[in-house]
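Renewal narrative, Specific Aim 1. Our central claim is that a sequence can be written position by position from structural information alone. The example that follows is taken directly from our test logs and has not been curated for this report. It begins with the structure tokens describing the chain, in the order in which they were read.
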């Protein structure tokens, strides 16, 4: 839980100083541990790539589209 709080604050500060970032939670943790030769006591929680968007970046056109609640929730 604390790692998530720290990661959120890192992202907020990056945004505050004009650096783009994104939270990535879905990744192969074992492959990351292998590639970075992480010790056994370190558990990757998320990846936060940071940088600047390309000048011609337009974003994903589906970003603000949401499914209807009935498509994602089942009321019993």
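The sequence written for that structure reads:
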């Amino acid at each position: 839980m604390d790692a998530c709080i720290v990661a959120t604050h890192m992202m907020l500060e990056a945004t505050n100083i004009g650096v783009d970032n994104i939270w990535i939670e879905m990744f192969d943790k074992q492959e990351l541990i292998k590639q970075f030769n992480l010790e056994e006591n370190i558990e990757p929680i998320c990846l936060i790539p940071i940088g600047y968007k390309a000048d011609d970046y337009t974003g994903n056109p589906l970003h603000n589209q949401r499914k209807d609640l009935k498509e994602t929730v089942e009321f019993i």
